[in-house]
Amino acid sequence: MILQLSKTITGQEKAQAINTIESIGYQVNEVRTQFGHYLIAVGKKEFDIRKIGHLKGVHDLHRVTDPFKLVSKKWRVHDTDINLGDGVHINRQSFSIIAGPCSIESEAQTAVTIEHLKTNNIRMMRGGVFKPRTSPYAFRGVGLEGLKQFSAQCREAGIKVVTEVMQVSQVAEMHDYVDIFQVGTRNAQNFNLLDELGKTDKAVMLKRGFSGTIEELLQAAEYVFSAGNEKIILCERGIRTFETAYRNTLDLNAVPILKEKSHLPVIVDPSHGVGLRNYIEPMALAATMAGADGIIVEVHNCPEKALSDGQQTLNYSEAQQLYHRLRQTFSLRRSFSIHH
Amino acid sequence: MILQLSKTITGQEKAQAINTIESIGYQVNEVRTQFGHYLIAVGKKEFDIRKIGHLKGVHDLHRVTDPFKLVSKKWRVHDTDINLGDGVHINRQSFSIIAGPCSIESEAQTAVTIEHLKTNNIRMMRGGVFKPRTSPYAFRGVGLEGLKQFSAQCREAGIKVVTEVMQVSQVAEMHDYVDIFQVGTRNAQNFNLLDELGKTDKAVMLKRGFSGTIEELLQAAEYVFSAGNEKIILCERGIRTFETAYRNTLDLNAVPILKEKSHLPVIVDPSHGVGLRNYIEPMALAATMAGADGIIVEVHNCPEKALSDGQQTLNYSEAQQLYHRLRQTFSLRRSFSIHH
Amino acid sequence: MILQLSKTITGQEKAQAINTIESIGYQVNEVRTQFGHYLIAVGKKEFDIRKIGHLKGVHDLHRVTDPFKLVSKKWRVHDTDINLGDGVHINRQSFSIIAGPCSIESEAQTAVTIEHLKTNNIRMMRGGVFKPRTSPYAFRGVGLEGLKQFSAQCREAGIKVVTEVMQVSQVAEMHDYVDIFQVGTRNAQNFNLLDELGKTDKAVMLKRGFSGTIEELLQAAEYVFSAGNEKIILCERGIRTFETAYRNTLDLNAVPILKEKSHLPVIVDPSHGVGLRNYIEPMALAATMAGADGIIVEVHNCPEKALSDGQQTLNYSEAQQLYHRLRQTFSLRRSFSIHH
Amino acid sequence: MILQLSKTITGQEKAQAINTIESIGYQVNEVRTQFGHYLIAVGKKEFDIRKIGHLKGVHDLHRVTDPFKLVSKKWRVHDTDINLGDGVHINRQSFSIIAGPCSIESEAQTAVTIEHLKTNNIRMMRGGVFKPRTSPYAFRGVGLEGLKQFSAQCREAGIKVVTEVMQVSQVAEMHDYVDIFQVGTRNAQNFNLLDELGKTDKAVMLKRGFSGTIEELLQAAEYVFSAGNEKIILCERGIRTFETAYRNTLDLNAVPILKEKSHLPVIVDPSHGVGLRNYIEPMALAATMAGADGIIVEVHNCPEKALSDGQQTLNYSEAQQLYHRLRQTFSLRRSFSIHH
Q1: C87, exposed or middle or buried, with CB in 10 Å at 0-12, 13-18, 19+?
Q2: CA–CA min distance C169, chain D (Å)
Q3: Domains and their CATH numbers in chain A
Q4: Model pTM?
Q5: A21 part of contact set with chain D, CB < 8 Å
Q6: Residue C139: helix, strand or coil by DSSP?
Q7: Residues D194, D222: contact at Cβ < 8 Å?
Q8: β-strand pairing of A27-32 with D2-5
């Protein structure tokens, strides 16, 4: 159960509300975000909702039977709009494209990427500076100094920065240089990191764990929201199955389900999903038709020379064709007036 | 290695060809289909292809390194067209829709389905008469007599019959009443059944095993082809994974991969795939954008009363909207001139 | 619900019983096996059991809430004993070892295997004569004639024959030469084959589908039992997962669960399970400790030259050590008086 | 390739060694642990090993073709012994039992657990103080203050403390109160945490990710080792598959494989593995026979009242029987002189 508190609620009124809920055997969690103030009541007993219907200072009250609460569509009728500033939004009315290399490599490479993005009217650049690598001996990214350079170039060009954060202490260090903190698939249940990201005012993109269920992804989002941050983007990026013909099983089934269960925007990563260059375009177009609100895709001026993930990275000409087709596909989907 | 034999090859020339191939340590399998006559040579040794380049009666010769041979795109440049007669085809130039109830129930219900199909310009009806059921105590279908009735009604209406065959002895019994034999996911590696279907002249639709790899699906097709039948349709219908939010993980990644690896048409079954009515449309549209050559979908005039699979079955008005959108989506995809 | 009918039930009494059950909204299936006569009532309504408690000709009545009925331990308190004759049994009081090559190859090879078995006091030999192969071009076994030779040699030596049946028509052909019909993992849901095996008087060993659930294995057993054959052995042989370090994930968790849910004996196949020679022994011993009633294992006088599955086959000296250790391990387990 | 450096190597000799290796196109990582000093050379080129055979200050040199290096058995012939002090070891010569509640609850409950352990001659207690929970609203453990109390009680009783660490900053905070840092399945690829644990002198128990491969577990161990800590214990705790009859698929196949590939001790967690109280004993005994060097198991004086995981927790009388049988089983296995 979610109680939306009024902005003018007094301490006494809040204490009264908490008391009342606890008296029916429910546990109460107070949540204060950028946009709202809530009490989350968790419990199993049946009770007469009229008992708590007339609490002072309580703006509205919603029963949510899902295991996740604040990220559920059951209480919030309008979909979440993530406003990144300068006219850049991620939401269900538009189609967002985030593109860039797997790893940030150099100032020159960032420059050429930015040019490619601007040519194609793309406002968000991805690029890893801290890279989670299976082997401790592999390249782990250019680090914080690299991020500062990457960020400066993007700011100059009016491009938003999307990059992965791997641990709690990096959140503060990276904060000023990032527009969307990306949480990778291996940290999908790193609950301390999720808590910490809940305390920031920057947007957070949560990748589904490669063996995480749809419900676990929504619970991860609940961590961030309940710690104070409503700016959350969900990202399907492929799950681990028995099939070995491709890198991961991009699970497009998750897209309409996430959109029905949650009010958060849903984007898809076909690069890590199917993971093979030839299949990125069909899977990205399919994702769009399945209802994705955007795509995050790996592009590089010379995929063969990329420091990581070259086999799943598009070159600029392939990418350009993809952007064009994505927009046409989204346009057709929108004409169906389907919000799936 | 595939040797396409000329129509006029003599017994002596064939013996000579077999001898030559065996002499380089390869095992030879002779295949005779509706449309061709082949020798399939299987082995691992490296050899000088010029040794066998000038065999008499050999029209053409192709190295195929895939584990599957005749169904591989490596030797056949043109895609397979399945001609069902009366102007009904399944191929990569058109978009095929197969619709109908999970189970055939009654003459009346078939009649109303046929009317629905005709209204929507659909030429192929699905409907099970032999139903594989997990429990021996569940409804197992109306059987052969039901098929005869179903088939008579379809023939009358110019509709092609698509229905599941479960065992070898049914192939002959069902032959005259069927246009496409469907092999279900549980029989995906029933090799005797595949062999038997290789001897028929009717088209065969192979569903991927719910835990079958893409390569195993292609090997199943190789069974049918090598036993004499080139009329094969591949069908992705969802795989079994850890996710429980839906029925099966419809694996759209398989679509572009199957189309790249094989010359056979590829259709998708979103009804068994995601398995929940609300998500059939987005997944069907996504499949189309991923490159599917068609869709097989469960529809019923009253899904709530269907004898099986009601929760994944569309009603006629939902279905009508879907057909319309599928055709628009295919049209957009075709405008991309992509053959993925 | 299971109604055990008395041997002297009259036609009228049976009709009366069926009527009564149907009148409470349950569907009735009559089952007649080698050992019993049952009515299986399937339905969902709650009802007063006293209503049907005093039916004439009904020996006993058991509520079974499992989806499978006759194979459930909920109604049969004593565990099933499979009597193969000549003092050979498979049951929970003893530990059964079945050994032999993957494929029957020749009279000489069968002879040497039999000698190995006799030396080690083993009474059951496995060996495939019909081999399910992923590729249609691979060796498919020595066939029926090979089976006759194999069987003759075993009969001569007092050894029971365990071999795979792949299709309905083979059941009659193979009947006289087989002691245990083995149903392979790819036919785990070949319901027609299961039905046909229900009509035979020979024992049936059901391998779990490589992506079959424990419940599906029990439902497959229910098919055989409800078609008339109570002589069923369950076999865990590994499932398909994301792990590629071995052939299949031998799922020993299934062993104690199957033993708790069903009264049927449970054996384990470590050869197909882990699928790598070095790990056969530890997994076989582990299976024994997990509660397995026996092991089916691939052995060959020269695994390197076996026609199939050499990499997972033990040589005679490895096998001999294994048998010895299996028996010691079973002896320790028995001392725990645990029937898991 | 691993170069073991001599204790007396000079700076100049090391620089010379690094130069030589880099000159053949290999990348060099220097590793300094509690027990050794190594250079790890990673590369793909073939080269003449004699070129680097006579480097001064290099004690020994090992080619390791595995993707993991320092944890591989290919270079270290003797198995690792984890010495926890006071005569408590984890290694392959003995069988270790770690027992305790899922969560530390209170001083009284710790006291009763310690008494249970002492009665049964168990020297290591498990108990979570920081609990990773899927929902942000669930109980997250008694925290650092709880750990201090728990640790003080254990120290008093001569019992070693095994508890989960969830993030980098906790490593220092928890250090003085912990004997074995446990890394949970959700942090199996939290590379920053692994790095940090590499800098501590305490033992680290790595749980396999619930969808982690065996190789990924070994790579996680490589992170810890290469960051400076050789005291690593591997733990199999079940993987996520399609089966829903139990909590996780405890993958005992991993046990003999890990023992063959690595020199580190391997323990098994049947509580999280199969996850159902009735099956803990058979799976624990099976793990022992598969070659496990120990077991970590959840016990509670009153499982029904445990704050978490009650359904998979043994009571003291069940546990006592288990310990006894584990020791008998290990004793039998040791009599086989098998080191699997």
Answers
A1: exposed
A2: 33
A3: 2-62 (3.30.70), 82-335 (3.20.20.70)
A4: 0.96
A5: no
A6: coil
A7: no
A8: unpaired
Closest Cα of chain A to B285: distance in Å? Answer: 6
**Per-position b or e across D282-317, b if 16+ CB within 10 A of its CB:** bbbbbbbbbbbbbbbbbbbbebeebbbbbebbbebe
Question: For residue D97, what are the β-bridge partners?
Answer: D295
Q: Distance between CA atoms of B71 and B73, rounded to whole angstroms?
A: 7
Q: Which residue has the tokens 């769009």?
A: A288
Closest residue to B240, CB basis, from D211, D240, D242? D242
pLDDT tens for chain B, 340 residues long, are 999 999 999 999 999 999 999 998 999 999 999 999 999 999 888 877 777 768 899 999 999 989 999 999 999 989 999 999 999 999 999 999 999 999 999 999 999 999 999 999 999 999 999 999 999 999 999 999 999 999 999 999 999 999 999 999 999 999 999 999 999 999 999 999 999 999 999 999 999 999 999 999 999 999 999 999 999 999 999 999 999 999 999 999 999 999 999 999 999 999 999 999 999 999 999 999 999 999 999 999 999 888 888 899 999 999 999 999 999 999 999 999 754 4
Mutate to test the interface with D, among C236, C268, C289 (most CBs of D within 10 A): C289
pLDDT of residue A270 exceeding 60: yes
Q: Which of these, C248, A240, A331, lies nearest to B253 by C-alpha position?
A: A240
Min distance B56 CA to chain A CA atoms (Å):
38
Give the closest residue to C163 by CA, choosing from C118, C210, C114, C127: C127
Report the gap between the CA of D329 and the closest CA in chain C (Å): 8
Residue C229 contacts B, CB cutoff 8 Å: no
Q: For an interface test with C, which of A210, A240, A241, A242 has the most C Cβ atoms less than 10 Å from its Cβ? A: A242
Q: A residues 240-259 near B, CB within 8 Å?
A: 241-246, 249-257
Task: Confirm or reject contact between A334 and chain B (CB < 8 A).
Answer: no
What lies within 8 Å, CB to CB, of D216 at 6+ separation is A134, D188, D189, D208, D209
What are the φ and ψ backbone dihedral angles of B207, each rounded to 5 degrees? -85, 140
Q: Which of D286, D277, D267 is nearest to D333 (CA)?
A: D286
Residues C98 and C299 sit within 8 Å (Cβ to Cβ): no
Reference B130, options B102, B153, B151; nearest CA is B102
Across the interface, whether the CB atoms of B241 and D244 are under 8 A apart is answered no
Identify the chains in contact with A, defined as 3+ C-beta pairs within 8 A: B, C, D
Q: Is D55 helix (H, G, I), strand (E, B) or coil?
A: coil
Cβ B167–C166 below 8 Å, yes or no?
no
